[in-house]
Automatic annotation (TrEMBL):
<keyword id="KW-0326">Glycosidase</keyword>
<dbReference type="Pfam" id="PF04616">
    <property type="entry name" value="Glyco_hydro_43"/>
</dbReference>
<feature type="active site" description="Proton acceptor">
    <location>
        <position position="33"/>
    </location>
</feature>
<keyword id="KW-0378">Hydrolase</keyword>
<dbReference type="GO" id="GO:0004553">
    <property type="term" value="F:hydrolase activity, hydrolyzing O-glycosyl compounds"/>
</dbReference>
<dbReference type="InterPro" id="IPR013320">
    <property type="entry name" value="ConA-like_dom_sf"/>
</dbReference>
<dbReference type="InterPro" id="IPR041542">
    <property type="entry name" value="GH43_C2"/>
</dbReference>
<feature type="active site" description="Proton donor">
    <location>
        <position position="198"/>
    </location>
</feature>
<dbReference type="InterPro" id="IPR006710">
    <property type="entry name" value="Glyco_hydro_43"/>
</dbReference>
<protein>
    <submittedName>
        <fullName>Glycosyl hydrolase 43 family protein</fullName>
    </submittedName>
</protein>
<comment type="similarity">
    <text>Belongs to the glycosyl hydrolase 43 family.</text>
</comment>
<feature type="domain" description="Beta-xylosidase C-terminal Concanavalin A-like">
    <location>
        <begin position="326"/>
        <end position="516"/>
    </location>
</feature>
<dbReference type="GO" id="GO:0005975">
    <property type="term" value="P:carbohydrate metabolic process"/>
</dbReference>
<dbReference type="InterPro" id="IPR023296">
    <property type="entry name" value="Glyco_hydro_beta-prop_sf"/>
</dbReference>
<feature type="site" description="Important for catalytic activity, responsible for pKa modulation of the active site Glu and correct orientation of both the proton donor and substrate">
    <location>
        <position position="140"/>
    </location>
</feature>
<dbReference type="InterPro" id="IPR051795">
    <property type="entry name" value="Glycosyl_Hydrlase_43"/>
</dbReference>
<dbReference type="Pfam" id="PF17851">
    <property type="entry name" value="GH43_C2"/>
</dbReference>
Length: 522
């Protein structure tokens, strides 16, 4: 039994209701800009990973509701600068496709250009990244292979790099996906009717070419569909999904998938601030060759997102599943849920130094670094629920003078319950908070021993974080501060939780386990 199965009953968010229905979001985790495909009876999804490593997550499902994280297409970023954090840079809005017996991912790096990788199977290995087109601000790329063998690529722009926004452009592409064959042509300008037009996905159905694209802004926008009998247009437009009277803001970009049963479904994200861009699933009904997403209220023309709905018809019921979050560190490699802030070094950690423990070495900060904001060796994972409890068992006896280790919630602002070995060799438990500008200490107490202890944070629905600690895994002592600390999103991402160890380089901290569960009232 793997970790995700072992802790399923304690999982703080499960979409599958066990009665043939599901709750949105299907993934209450920061899988931003999701794209999804079906190959036979299998569904695969990827999402933006920005500067976090490994990047380009690959998830698998058999029913579009229950998902497992199976791989990352980028184990290490072989571009300059990834020895340090690249907040908000890197992998933006990928597209996942299956064509010619291979799996393809295209994405735009706003500072580099259009990138591509392929694999024979989503579980990998994936080929090294290939630069299809160099250029700043080329983002939200999507390839398309037509029935006549011609290949195309559509993209949007990052205004911050290119000085262009609201516009979608299309160009011819070599069938092998490695080159663009001409300069792109404008296929739609959303300046007047669909401002902040971005995230295009290109499809063909019943003789129409369709562009699915969100507009109006991440937290306030809507889904637009454009269609034409000619791939170059002109395209007519229709808003097919908006927030309406629901609490699901956005709703933002995603991907269309059609089932063997004939059903159509749309996967998209909703921006929930500190909790990230969580993933929703909407039914799609076709009316006069226009897709209607979600449900339409009487007297309304535009669909609204569903909250509770029947599961897709995939022919049978599949077991309940969620991506792993808890980790007992009893394997030979780190769980797939973990990401570093930069390309990892083997000197940062070990799973062999102590059986069934993760050893984090006290990595020196380096010149010019203060606090944790730009530390590359933070080991973090996504939030997985609107509220959750995270507990770790940590042995600080390996820390040396000046070393710090602890449990962290990280975003633009961060807060951690840490253990520090002072210059006098004393062990101090403290609550630290900081941002890009620096850190402050909010609370501290001196410990009498260096024995293993548990550190805990409970993250509430208002994003407030309550820290506590225990010496026996049973009785927890709250860390009391004058005001609750509120988690913050990061650059284009939700807050993350995880562990770290910093210092002079001579010490270490051992972590026995990292467990994510529901908050249980006393």
């Amino acid at each position: 039994m793997n970790t995700s199965d072992r802790f399923l009953e304690d999982a703080p968010w499960i979409s599958d209701q066990g009665d043939g229905t599901y709750l949105n979001p299907i993934l209450h985790a920061d899988y931003s800009d999701p794209d999804v495909i079906r190959v036979g009876e299998d569904f695969y999804m990827t999402a933006s990973s920005f500067g976090h490593i490994p990047g380009l997550p690959i998830l698998h499902s058999r029913d579009l509701v229950n998902w497992r994280l199976i791989n990352h297409a980028i184990p290490r970023m072989d571009l300059d600068g990834y020895d340090k954090p690249q907040h908000g840079n890197g992998v933006w809005a990928p597209s996942l496709r299956y064509h010619g017996g291979k799996y393809w991912i295209f994405y735009g790096d706003p500072d580099v250009g259009i990138m591509m990788t392929t694999a024979d199977h989503p579980a990998g290995p994936w080929a090294p990244l290939h630069l299809v087109k160099e250029g700043r601000g080329l983002i939200d790329t999507c390839p398309f292979w037509d029935e006549d063998g011609q290949a195309y690529l559509i993209h949007a722009y990052a205004n911050s790099r290119a000085g262009i926004k609201h516009k979608l452009r299309l160009c011819r592409m070599s069938p092998d996906g490695r080159h663009l064959l001409d300069e792109s042509q404008l296929v739609y300008d959303g300046t007047e009717n669909h401002p902040t037009l971005e995230g295009p996905k290109l499809y063909k159905r019943n003789g129409y070419y369709y562009i699915f694209a969100p507009a109006g802004g991440v937290a306030t926008g809507w889904q637009t569909v454009f269609r034409s009998r000619d791939i170059w247009g002109p395209y007519e437009d229709k808003i097919v999904l908006h927030q309406g009277e629901t609490e699901i803001n956005g709703p933002h970009q995603g991907g269309l998938v059609e089932l063997e049963s004939g059903e159509s479904w749309f996967v998209h994200f909703q921006d929930k601030g500190a909790f990230g861009r969580v993933v929703h699933l909407q039914p799609v009904h076709w009316v006069d060759d226009w897709p209607l997403m979600g449900v339409r209220r009487e007297g309304h023309e535009i669909g609204e997102p569903v909250v509770h709905y029947r599961k897709p018809n995939v022919g049978r019921a599949y077991p309940v599943e969620v991506p792993a979050s808890s980790d007992e560190f009893d394997g030979a490699v780190l769980g797939l849920q973990w990401q570093w802030q930069a390309n990892p070094e083997r000197a940062w950690y070990s799973l062999e130094a102590r059986a069934s423990w993760l050893r984090l070495f006290a990595v020196p900060q380096g010149e010019g670094r203060s606090g944790l904001y730009d530390a590359p060796n933070l080991l973090l994972q996504k939030m997985v629920a609107p509220s959750s409890r995270i507990t770790i068992a940590i042995d600080p006896s390996g820390l040396t003078k000046g070393d710090t280790a602890g449990l962290l919630v990280f975003g633009y602002r961060y807060c951690y319950l840490g253990l520090r070995c002072t210059e006098e060799g004393l062990l101090v438990l403290f609550l630290g908070s900081g941002n890009e500008q620096g850190e402050e200490e909010l609370w501290s107490t001196q410990l009498k021993a260096e024995a293993p202890l548990c550190l805990r944070v409970e993250i509430r629905e208002d994003a407030s974080c309550v820290y506590s600690y225990s010496f026996d895994e049973t009785e927890f002592h709250s860390v009391i501060t004058s005001e609750p600390w509120i988690a913050s999103e990061g650059k284009w991402v939700g807050a993350k939780a995880g562990i770290f160890c910093l210092g002079s380089g001579g010490g270490f901290a051992d972590v026995d386990w990292f467990r994510v569960s529901q908050i249980v009232s006393p």
